[in-house]
Amino acid sequence: MLTLLDLSAAFNSVDHHTLLQRLQKSYDLNGKVIDWFTSYLSYPVQHVRTATSSSTPAAVVYGVPQGSVLGPILFLLYAADLLQLIERHHLTPHGYADDTQIYWYCQPSEAGSLLQQVSVCTDEVSAWMKANRLQLNPAKTEVLWCT
Protein backbone atom coordinates (compact mmCIF):
# COMPACT_ATOMS: atom_id res chain seq x y z
CA MET A 1 0.00 0.00 0.00
CA LEU A 2 1.29 3.44 -0.94
CA THR A 3 -0.14 6.68 0.45
CA LEU A 4 0.87 9.89 -1.32
CA LEU A 5 0.36 12.94 0.89
CA ASP A 6 -0.18 16.31 -0.74
CA LEU A 7 0.47 19.49 1.21
CA SER A 8 -1.02 22.86 0.37
CA ALA A 9 1.55 25.70 0.15
CA ALA A 10 3.99 23.73 2.32
CA PHE A 11 7.04 25.91 1.72
CA ASN A 12 5.02 29.06 2.50
CA SER A 13 3.74 27.63 5.79
CA VAL A 14 7.01 26.95 7.63
CA ASP A 15 7.03 28.91 10.90
CA HIS A 16 10.45 30.60 11.25
CA HIS A 17 10.39 30.58 15.06
CA THR A 18 9.53 26.87 15.19
CA LEU A 19 12.15 26.05 12.55
CA LEU A 20 14.88 27.89 14.46
CA GLN A 21 13.90 26.09 17.68
CA ARG A 22 14.08 22.72 15.90
CA LEU A 23 17.47 23.55 14.42
CA GLN A 24 18.72 24.25 17.94
CA LYS A 25 17.04 21.41 19.84
CA SER A 26 16.96 18.59 17.29
CA TYR A 27 20.15 19.34 15.38
CA ASP A 28 22.20 21.09 18.09
CA LEU A 29 22.89 24.16 15.96
CA ASN A 30 23.99 27.12 18.08
CA GLY A 31 26.20 30.17 18.08
CA LYS A 32 27.13 31.68 14.74
CA VAL A 33 25.36 28.93 12.80
CA ILE A 34 21.96 29.62 14.35
CA ASP A 35 22.66 33.37 14.08
CA TRP A 36 23.23 32.88 10.33
CA PHE A 37 19.95 30.97 9.92
CA THR A 38 18.14 33.60 11.98
CA SER A 39 19.54 36.32 9.74
CA TYR A 40 18.72 34.32 6.59
CA LEU A 41 15.10 33.82 7.64
CA SER A 42 14.60 37.31 9.08
CA TYR A 43 15.66 39.26 6.01
CA PRO A 44 12.54 39.13 3.79
CA VAL A 45 9.89 41.81 4.07
CA GLN A 46 6.70 42.29 2.11
CA HIS A 47 4.38 45.16 1.33
CA VAL A 48 1.50 46.01 -0.97
CA ARG A 49 1.93 48.79 -3.50
CA THR A 50 -0.67 50.35 -5.75
CA ALA A 51 -0.25 53.10 -8.30
CA THR A 52 -0.86 55.75 -5.64
CA SER A 53 0.20 54.27 -2.28
CA SER A 54 2.24 51.63 -0.48
CA SER A 55 1.72 49.79 2.79
CA THR A 56 4.30 49.70 5.56
CA PRO A 57 6.80 46.86 4.99
CA ALA A 58 6.30 43.91 7.36
CA ALA A 59 8.61 41.05 8.18
CA VAL A 60 7.81 37.68 6.63
CA VAL A 61 7.66 35.20 9.54
CA TYR A 62 6.48 32.14 7.60
CA GLY A 63 7.92 30.30 4.64
CA VAL A 64 11.25 29.22 3.23
CA PRO A 65 12.55 30.50 -0.10
CA GLN A 66 11.26 28.44 -3.00
CA GLY A 67 13.69 27.76 -5.81
CA SER A 68 16.63 28.02 -3.43
CA VAL A 69 19.03 25.27 -2.45
CA LEU A 70 18.20 25.70 1.25
CA GLY A 71 14.40 25.80 0.87
CA PRO A 72 13.80 22.05 0.48
CA ILE A 73 16.47 21.21 3.07
CA LEU A 74 14.97 23.57 5.63
CA PHE A 75 11.53 22.13 4.95
CA LEU A 76 12.81 18.58 5.50
CA LEU A 77 14.45 19.62 8.78
CA TYR A 78 11.19 21.31 9.82
CA ALA A 79 9.14 18.19 8.98
CA ALA A 80 11.58 15.50 10.19
CA ASP A 81 9.35 14.76 13.20
CA LEU A 82 6.63 13.77 10.74
CA LEU A 83 8.80 10.96 9.37
CA GLN A 84 9.41 9.69 12.91
CA LEU A 85 5.66 9.79 13.61
CA ILE A 86 5.03 7.56 10.58
CA GLU A 87 7.76 5.13 11.68
CA ARG A 88 6.10 4.82 15.12
CA HIS A 89 3.16 3.26 13.26
CA HIS A 90 5.54 0.62 11.85
CA LEU A 91 5.16 2.09 8.36
CA THR A 92 7.89 3.36 6.06
CA PRO A 93 8.00 7.07 5.19
CA HIS A 94 9.77 8.67 2.26
CA GLY A 95 10.16 12.42 2.12
CA TYR A 96 11.50 14.59 -0.65
CA ALA A 97 11.06 18.33 -0.17
CA ASP A 98 7.32 18.75 0.50
CA ASP A 99 6.31 15.34 -0.90
CA THR A 100 5.72 12.63 1.68
CA GLN A 101 4.89 9.01 0.96
CA ILE A 102 3.87 6.26 3.38
CA TYR A 103 4.19 2.66 2.33
CA TRP A 104 4.15 -0.88 3.64
CA TYR A 105 3.29 -4.37 2.50
CA CYS A 106 1.31 -7.31 3.81
CA GLN A 107 -0.24 -10.62 2.91
CA PRO A 108 -3.66 -10.33 1.20
CA SER A 109 -5.33 -11.72 4.32
CA GLU A 110 -3.90 -8.81 6.36
CA ALA A 111 -5.09 -6.02 4.01
CA GLY A 112 -7.87 -4.86 6.35
CA SER A 113 -5.46 -4.55 9.25
CA LEU A 114 -2.97 -2.59 7.14
CA LEU A 115 -5.70 -0.28 5.92
CA GLN A 116 -6.68 0.45 9.54
CA GLN A 117 -3.02 1.02 10.47
CA VAL A 118 -2.54 3.48 7.57
CA SER A 119 -5.82 5.24 8.39
CA VAL A 120 -4.83 5.82 12.03
CA CYS A 121 -1.38 6.98 10.90
CA THR A 122 -2.86 9.39 8.33
CA ASP A 123 -5.18 10.86 10.98
CA GLU A 124 -2.20 11.48 13.27
CA VAL A 125 -0.21 12.93 10.36
CA SER A 126 -3.06 15.34 9.66
CA ALA A 127 -3.19 16.40 13.32
CA TRP A 128 0.61 16.85 13.41
CA MET A 129 0.44 18.99 10.29
CA LYS A 130 -2.26 21.21 11.76
CA ALA A 131 -0.21 21.65 14.93
CA ASN A 132 2.79 22.64 12.79
CA ARG A 133 0.97 25.09 10.48
CA LEU A 134 0.99 22.68 7.54
CA GLN A 135 -2.15 21.69 5.67
CA LEU A 136 -2.81 18.24 4.26
CA ASN A 137 -4.81 18.48 1.05
CA PRO A 138 -7.26 15.54 1.25
CA ALA A 139 -8.51 16.11 -2.31
CA LYS A 140 -5.03 15.39 -3.68
CA THR A 141 -3.91 12.76 -1.16
CA GLU A 142 -4.00 9.32 -2.77
CA VAL A 143 -3.91 5.74 -1.48
CA LEU A 144 -2.76 3.10 -3.95
CA TRP A 145 -2.93 -0.66 -3.53
CA CYS A 146 -0.07 -2.37 -5.32
CA THR A 147 -0.18 -6.11 -5.84
Indicate the overall shape.
elongated
Q: What is the mean predicted local confidence, pLDDT?
A: 90
Q: What does the largest sheet look like? A: 4 strands, antiparallel
* Total strand segments: 8
Q: Which range does the strand content fall in?
A: 15-25%
Structural class: alpha+beta
Helicity range of the residues? 40-55%
Q: What is the CA-atom radius of gyration, in angstroms?
A: 19 Å
Following the backbone from N to C, one meets helices and strands in this order, namely EEHHHEEHHEEHEE
Q: What is the number of helical segments per DSSP (H or I, 4+ residues)?
A: 6
Sequence stretches where pLDDT stays below 50 over 5 or more residues: none
Q: Termini separation (Å)?
A: 8 Å
The spatial strand order of the largest sheet comes to 5-6-1-8
Q: Would you give an account of this structure?
A:
This protein is an alpha+beta fold and 147 residues long. 44% of the residues lie in helices and 17% in strands. It has helices spanning 10-13, 16-25, 31-42, 70-78, 80-88, 111-131; strands at 2-5, 7-8, 45-46, 58-59, 92-96, 99-103, 135-136, 142-144. It has a 4-stranded antiparallel sheet with strand order 5-6-1-8, with helices on one face. A two-stranded antiparallel ribbon has the order 2-7. α2 (16-25) runs antiparallel to α3 (31-42). The longest helix has 21 residues, at 111-131.
